[in-house]
Specification:
By secondary structure, the chain is of the alpha/beta class. It has one domain: Rossmann fold. Helix content is about 50%, strand content about 10%. The chain has 14 helices and 6 strands. The chain has helices spanning about 15-30, 40-50, 80-90, 95-105, 145-165, 180-195, 195-200, 210-225, 230-240, 240-255, 265-280, 295-305, 320-340, 340-345; strands at about 60-65, 110-115, 125-130, 170-175, 260-265, 285-290. The model has no long low-confidence stretch (mean pLDDT about 95). Keywords: Cobalamin biosynthesis, Glycosyltransferase, Transferase. Catalyzes the synthesis of alpha-ribazole-5'-phosphate from nicotinate mononucleotide (NAMN) and 5,6-dimethylbenzimidazole (DMB).
Length: about 350
């Protein structure tokens, strides 16, 4: 099993010199100190991550990772597994929410198919076919993936980060598509946080309260089968999904290549949490787009001390919440780069 180098190799730190310059620059701008709130810190953080005096997130790369889950045989989703493959075609044809948002942002969008039960048309535009298996194994009965499958999924994510870097991306976003993946994410979060399934299992694609209770019982079965092992790779292989593992690998790969990362909702945040348990310094490269309405997201965010930029009641996934937050990041950059200083504007700084 060959894992990406970012799994074990120390991640770089943001550039402290550029952070200090950005802090000093903010102090010269025509506004009371701190009056732009988190927009100021956002720009400062980007300066350090990008090692530049003028931060920018004009070039955005979005990778959507798609895969099916064997746990669906437990009846934990309101939608059939065929939807995963159908949505891959919808992404490619421009009809999905993230397709519309990516176009409006001028972002590059790719879809990485890691394995679906349903068939997808050949040669879909923007779709990279890296199928590992038609789906994971039912995690309630056995480990979801083999060590070799886990390595393949992590490598797929790392390769997406490399493509983003090669294309000069200034911001990396990862999204998910996979019927059943909120169940896998809830199981991962329960194992990592030692929390109860009743606390973290949510409605997903629209389950009734009875359906949520059943979902929690399935997660509990998976957690009981998995046992007490808390090693990140073992948890991910036992309870995760191909797309969640790929997002984990993509986040670590992006940080290794010094790219700022904008994290989406529940699924992506759980992937970030797994990655942080392996590489705690990953937090230095993460921005959080939004607070999902999916139950459990708040607990996962709290574990990372994350403060999302938006709270719009969204729970779609597929990187949609992160994409909606990109214009806010662009405004933070514009303010940092374009505001006049007190000296340039001839305005007294109060001293």
């Amino acid at each position: 099993m060959t894992l990406p180098t970012s799994w074990t190799q120390a991640l770089p730190d943001p550039d402290r010199a550029f952070i200090e310059r950005a802090v000093a620059h903010q102090a010269t701008l025509t506004k009371p100190p701190g009056s732009l709130g988190r927009l100021e810190q956002l720009a400062i953080d980007l300066c350090g991550q990008q090692a530049r005096e003028q931060p920018s997130v004009d070039r955005v790369h979005i990778s959507i990772f798609a895969a099916d889950h064997g746990v669906c045989e437990e009846g934990i989703s309101a939608f059939p597994q065929a939807v995963t493959a159908q949505m891959i075609a919808n992404f490619a044809n421009g009809g999905a929410a993230i397709s519309v948002l990516a176009k409006s942002l001028g972002a590059s969008l790719e879809v990485v198919n890691l394995g679906t039960v349903g068939d997808t048309p050949a040669d879909l535009p923007g779709v990279i076919d890296l199928q590992i298996a038609p789906s994971t194994v039912n995690m309630a009965k056995a480990p979801a993936m083999t060590p070799e499958q886990l390595a393949s999924a992590l490598q797929a994510g790392d390769q997406a980060a490399q493509r983003a870097s090669d294309n000069g991306a200034e911001l990396f976003i990862a999204g998910d598509m996979g019927i059943g993946n909120t169940t896998a994410a809830a199981a991962l979060a329960c194992a990592l946080l030692e929390a109860s399934p009743e606390e973290l299992a949510g409605a997903g694609t629209g389950l009734t309260p009875e359906g949520v209770a059943h979902k929690a019982s399935v997660v509990n079965k998976a957690i009981s089968r998995h046992g007490a092992d808390r090693e990140p790779a073992n948890i991910l292989a036992s309870l995760g999904g191909f797309e969640i593992a790929a997002i984990t690998g993509a986040f670590l790969g992006a940080a290794q290549r010094r790219m700022p990362i904008l994290v989406d909702g529940f699924i992506a945040s759980v992937a970030a949490l797994v990655a942080m348990r392996q590489q705690p310094s990953l937090i230095n490269w993460l921005h959080f787009g939004h607070r999902s309405a999916e139950r459990g997201h708040q607990r996962v965010l709290a574990a990372m001390q994350a403060k999302p930029l938006l709270d719009l009641g969204m729970r779609l996934g597929e990187a949609s919440g992160a994409a909606v937050a990109v214009p806010l990041m662009r405004q933070a950059c514009a303010l940092h780069n374009q505001m006049a200083s007190f000296a340039d504007a001839g305005v007294s700084d109060g001293s």
